[in-house]
Design the sequence.
C-alpha cells in the first residue's frame, strides 16, 4: 500500500488513543473496508454509494483525500437525483469548494434537492430568494420556503424567520412572533437567536421586559461566540440591569467587545479608562482606544481623541 493512503488511517489512530490498540486497528480496517465496499457499489452505479465514496474522498476516510475525486463522485450521485449529493454539490458551488463560486449553479442544485423535500436545500433556497443570490429576489418565495422549513423545527430557519418577522420582511413586522421564533431557536443552542432574544427581553420588544432572563440569554450568546452580545452585557453590568451593578465586570465585557472590533465598545472603553471606571485611570490607553474607534468612523471617539490629543 502506498504511503499517502496510510495517512488518514494514521490520523485516525492518533485520535483514538483512549481505545485499546486492537480496537483502533479494527476500526481503521473497517474504515478502509467501508471505502472499498462503497467503491464497488459506486462503480456499479449506486447513487447512495457514490455519495458515500465522495464523502470518503472529502474526509480521507479509508482513502487518500482528493477534492477532485470527491467532486467527481458527488456529481455522479447528484446527477442521478440523490438529494443529499445535490445539496452538497450546491454548497460546493456556493462556497467555491473545488469549483469556481457560482451562485446560479448552486441554486440550480438546491432547487433539485428542495423539490425532493430536502430540508437543508429548502432552507438555503429560501435564504437565496431573500438575498436574490443566484435566483430571482423574492421575499414571498423566501418566506414561503423558510416557513416550510421552520415547521420542521430547523434551527437556522427559525432564527432567519424570526429576524424577518422582526424587520417586516415579506409583510408587516411582528415583534411578538419574532420573539417566539428566537426562543425556539435559542432553546436549540443558536447563539445569535439567544442574542436577539436577550435584546428583546431587555428592551421589551415583542414581550414584557425581563432583564434577569435577558442577561441569561446574552451570556449564552457570548458563550456561543456571538460577539454582538458582549457590549449589551457590559451595559447590563454598568447599569445593573438584571444583575448587580459592577463596574469591573462592565469594563471586562466592554474590553472583550472592543477587542472583537466593536467601534462603540472601543469608544466606551476609552471613556472607562479616561474616567477610571472599573479600572485604573490611563489617558494613554484611553487615547489608543479612541483612535481605534475613530478609525472606524465613530464620531464621539473622534471628538474625545481630539480633546485628549490637545492636552498632550
Sequence:
Amino acid at each position: 500500500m502506498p504511503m499517502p493512503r496510510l495517512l488518514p488511517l494514521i490520523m485516525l489512530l492518533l485520535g483514538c488513543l483512549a481505545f485499546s490498540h486492537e480496537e483502533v486497528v479494527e476500526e481503521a480496517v473497517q474504515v478502509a473496508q467501508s471505502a472499498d465496499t462503497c467503491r464497488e457499489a459506486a462503480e456499479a452505479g449506486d447513487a447512495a454509494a457514490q455519495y458515500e465514496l465522495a464523502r470518503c474522498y472529502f474526509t480521507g476516510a479509508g482513502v487518500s483525500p482528493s477534492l477532485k475525486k470527491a467532486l467527481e463522485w458527488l456529481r455522479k450521485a447528484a446527477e442521478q437525483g440523490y438529494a443529499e449529493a445535490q445539496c452538497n454539490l450546491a454548497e460546493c458551488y456556493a462556497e467555491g469548494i473545488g469549483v469556481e463560486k457560482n451562485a446560479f449553479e448552486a441554486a440550480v442544485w438546491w432547487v433539485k434537492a428542495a423539490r425532493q423535500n430536502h430540508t437543508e436545500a429548502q432552507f438555503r433556497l429560501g435564504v437565496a430568494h431573500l438575498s436574490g443570490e443566484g435566483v430571482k429576489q423574492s421575499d414571498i418565495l423566501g418566506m414561503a420556503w423558510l416557513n416550510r422549513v421552520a415547521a420542521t423545527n430547523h434551527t437556522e430557519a427559525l432564527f432567519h424567520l424570526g429576524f424577518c418577522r422582526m424587520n417586516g420582511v415579506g409583510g408587516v413586522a411582528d415583534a411578538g412572533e419574532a420573539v417566539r421564533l428566537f426562543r425556539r431557536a435559542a432553546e436549540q443552542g443558536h447563539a445569535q437567536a439567544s442574542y436577539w432574544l436577550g435584546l428583546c427581553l431587555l428592551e421589551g420588544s415583542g414581550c414584557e421586559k425581563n432583564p434577569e432572563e435577558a442577561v441569561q440569554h446574552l451570556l449564552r450568546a457570548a458563550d456561543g461566540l456571538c460577539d454582538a452580545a458582549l457590549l449589551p452585557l457590559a451595559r447590563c453590568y454598568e447599569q445593573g440591569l438584571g444583575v448587580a451593578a459592577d463596574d469591573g465586570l462592565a469594563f471586562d465585557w466592554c474590553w472583550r467587545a472592543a477587542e472583537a472590533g466593536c467601534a462603540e465598545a472601543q469608544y466606551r472603553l476609552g471613556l472607562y479608562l479616561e474616567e477610571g471606571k472599573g479600572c485604573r485611570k490611563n489617558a494613554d490607553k484611553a487615547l489608543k482606544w479612541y483612535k481605534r474607534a475613530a478609525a472606524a468612523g465613530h464620531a464621539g471617539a473622534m471628538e474625545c481623541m481630539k480633546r485628549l490629543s490637545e492636552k498632550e
Notes: The two ends are 71 Å apart (CA to CA). Residues 21-43 form the longest helix (23 residues).
